[in-house]
Amino acid sequence: MAFVGAQKLHTTIPFLLLSLFLLLLSPSSQGAKSYSEFRYPFIKRASSFSSLSSSTYSSRHGESVYDYIIVGGGTAGCPLAATLSKKFNVLLLERGGVPFANSNVSFLSNFHITLADISPTSASQAFISTDGVLNARARVLGGGTCINAGFYTRASSRFIEKVGWDAKLVNESYPWIENQIVHRPKLTPWQRAFRDSLLDVGVSPFNGFTYDHLYGTKFGGTIFDRFGRRHTAAELLATADPHKLTVLVYATVLNIVFDTTGKQPKAVGVIFKDENGNRHEAVLRNRRQSEVILSSGALGSPQMLLLSGIGPRADLEKLNISVVLDNEFVGKGMADNPMNTVFVPTNRPIKKSLIQTVGITKFGVYIESSSGFGQSSDSIRCNHGMMSAEIGQLSTIPPKQRTWEAAQAYIKTKRNLPQEAFWGGFILEKIADPLSTGQLTLANTNVDDNPTVTFNYFNHPYDLHRCVDGIRMAAKVVQSKHFTDFTKNTRETIEKLLNATVKANVNLIPKHTNDTKSLEQFCRDTVISIWHYHGGCHVGKVVSPDYKVLGVSRLRVVDGSTFSESPGTNPQATVMMMGRYMGLKILKDRLGQGADL
Length: 597
What we know:
Elements: H1 13-22, E1 43-45, H2 55-61, E2 65-66, E3 68-71, H3 77-84, E4 90-94, H4 103-106, H5 111-116, E5 124-128, E6 134-138, E7 151-152, H6 157-163, H7 167-181, H8 189-200, E8 206-209, E9 216-219, E10 221-222, E11 245-249, E12 252-259, E13 266-273, E14 279-284, E15 291-294, H9 297-307, E16 310-311, H10 313-318, E17 325-326, E18 332-334, E19 338-345, E20 357-360, E21 365-371, H11 377-380, H12 404-413, E22 424-431, E23 438-441, E24 452-454, H13 461-478, H14 484-487, H15 494-503, H16 519-525, E25 528-529, E26 555-557, H17 572-591
Parallel strand pairs: 1-11, 2-14, 3-4, 3-15, 4-11, 8-9, 15-26, 16-17
Antiparallel strand pairs: 5-6, 7-10, 9-20, 12-13, 13-14, 18-23, 19-22, 19-25, 20-21, 21-22, 23-24
Helix pairs in contact: 3-17, 7-17, 13-16
């Protein structure tokens, strides 16, 4: 395998050396090598794990037992593991591979290709909610930070107060992230025009460049550097104690193991399978404060609780899962921030940009923008969800036949469309703190399969009302004089632009003929996701305020599944901070003054 493309020559020599070595870890590589000579000596293939025969043996001999076993090396799991490893032995289990040598993950210009990759080893695992909305979940070390649009912005002070976090510790934890992987974006002309348009339509004041969540228009941070290279949560592992941390990739946890002989179930370890399908058991140290910590995300964590026997008794028994704890709330209260877009055709190809500018309104809507991702030859040959510019796709296929397979079939034919049809950008309108909620249930007992998820977009009338207001504002932004240079000779009426969105394959929801006449119907029929789903393990119902699973011991959940709302305009900053924050808090609660790092 070789690096291709001049843009990669900008990569630093250490990064190149690390990336070349990490290629050895790809599923197609022969031989299982660790990174002992390089930056991350603690990352290994799951098959390198030496499973001991029983927890009794492990406890007696004191070998291969861990103070903390973290399930999910994602946005929260990586900073959590790095922090806990400063004082304790930590095992971090990640079902995907590493991101470092994956050019589709590493470079902004390839952002959309990862989302389009539906192969079994892709960093992005596609799923479709029962609502008919295309979505994605991460399957790679670094989690969602490897497949998202890169925008970095903190939660509001209201959110921090609502979840009960220590503001001082929060303000120590955010900079720990920012100093390692966050950058100031190099603004594109499109993003500058978008900023001026937001101010024109009244999303003011202009707050300049800031990480803070402030009403008005601002530029935020990004995890893409000036060369367009992505920096993910996986890089936060560089701060770990390499002697106390073991990271296993291609390690798919099947279930949590409990001791049920006491007054309440106690987590004692996990069962996982490696890349060859062989099963292993990882065991917790026999101490009261040792823990299994789920950091598998808003889909993965409730799914893992259910597979392990914690959830609604009737649902578990239907799938012949032994009930460890009957809790009707596991998987309930799932929410996803609904997003709708307006595609803006331009008179020429424009530079690619992801989210750099955001308008934070006072009526509960965020306005963002992207540009240039529909126009390249590789884009025209694939479907990439949020960045889709597939005008006319599936419009001739009856709604009941609009399947994933039908979408793929259309992708093969759209290369015949003129490339000019794909020039342009998007104005994105997203609802903050949706009141509509749904649920997650197991489709089966195969952990590799997605659970069944329903978000019930726009079930609550207030969400729909805000969407209509947001689309009206987006329409004003599109018509602003600041976009004239991009849209000269291509300007279309708003009705035509909205109709183009209706005809595009943005979801699998049946369309209605009155979409462009009724903005309410437009919102319902063209809703998409920007992957900010959350919930399923809510505080007070599934976990305590310190995220310990209620009714069992030595089990905790640290990720966005505990949130009742998505923090800030984009959640990755706060989810990474949560990993660092909870790591510090666990150490301080356990060690007191001895926890100082």
